[in-house]
Amino acid sequence: MIGTGLTVRYLRPWRIELTVRPGVPRLRSLAQVARLVDAALRVAGAPAPASIGVILSDDGELSALNRQAMGKEGPTDVLSFPLLPPDAFPPHPGRSPGPRAAPPAFVLPPGTRPHLGDIVVSVERAIDQAEQGRGGQTGSVAWNPADELALLVVHGVLHVCGWDHAEPEEEAAMRRIEMEILADPGWLRGR
What we know:
By secondary structure, the protein is of the alpha/beta class. The chain is 38% helix and 18% strand.
């Protein structure tokens, strides 16, 4: 553990950088969060090897990021910051297939991994949504905050991997994939 709250987990072929902001409650172990990220990256067909960052934060940080990145006021539960275009990932239902993105115009130094992007999750929002019955995929589920956090992590990773939910077909496919990942007990206990 580095003094900044950063923990790095290697789940081949991924380097998963996990940051927990000071004062943020731990609803899931970092090992479980890393395994969720691993599962979502595999299902999405992310290029490998690669790295990804996950920041577990609060409403204050998500409010500021939501304003800066999305032009929206107030906190949100998860924001994704992909670094590769959606076409760098395999096509999926609801996304019109385009040509696969060309490899980057530059070559990475030996032994380095491309960084796929980062997700930032408000653990505070996950707790509130779950306890107030505004959680889950429908925004109407009362459940354990740890389960809400798991859903938000998977959702954020899928966004980094080119998934979206603007079109009904893609949203339905994304929701199906989320539930498949969450229903697999492997991420809870490890493989």
